[in-house]
Amino acid sequence: MLGRTIADPDAIEGEPGETKGLNLLDLEARLVEGKPLRRVTGVFAESGTPMSGYEIHNGVTTGSALERPLVSLDARLDGAVSQDQAVAGCYIHGVFDDAEACQTLLIWAGLQNDQKTADYQQHRLTELDRLADTLTDNITVVLLSRD
Fold it and tell me: For residue 33, what are the CA distances in angstroms to 7, 37, 51, 141?
């Protein structure tokens, strides 16, 4: 989406053809068979900050923006940063879930260093505990376990 075009000549995700992207990165994507889904870990290429998430996509990306990768994953590079450093993207989902990785991305985007980001994982656990407490307080568990 961030590149110039997304081509789907083999009709993998719909009608065969090509769609214009946002033209924010010097890239082209071409959909191919197979959609890997895998957990990945690595570091942000510029800062060395650890990051993790999951990779899911069914395409091959080419273009000069790949010469400025966003992340380094287990001996391979992923993503791209625009030449003017205004736009970045990658195929990794969940990079904002880790507080340190999220902080790194937000600082890159202009957040002041003295501001802290929320810890998503801690927030998620707190909200799950709150939900469990609400259910415990309002549901008669014995009625749910009847045969």
Answer: 13, 13, 27, 47
The whole-angstrom separation of Cα 37 and Cα 23 is: 26
Taken as a whole, the chain contains a residue count of 147
Q: Which residue has the tokens 């307080």?
A: 137
Question: Do 21 and 29 form a contact (C-beta atoms < 8 A)?
Answer: yes
Nearest residue to 124 via CA among 93, 96, 91, 90: 96
Per DSSP, the chain holds a count of helices (H) and strands (E) of 3, 11
Q: Where are the alpha helices (DSSP H) in 10-145?
A: 99-108, 120-138, 141-144
Is 74 buried (19+), middle (13-18) or exposed (0-12) by CB count in 10 A? Answer: exposed
Q: What is the pLDDT of residue 50?
A: 95
Question: Beta strand 28-31 with 5-8: parallel, antiparallel or unpaired?
Answer: parallel
Q: Tens digit of pLDDT for each residue in 22-41?
A: 999 999 999 998 888 899 99
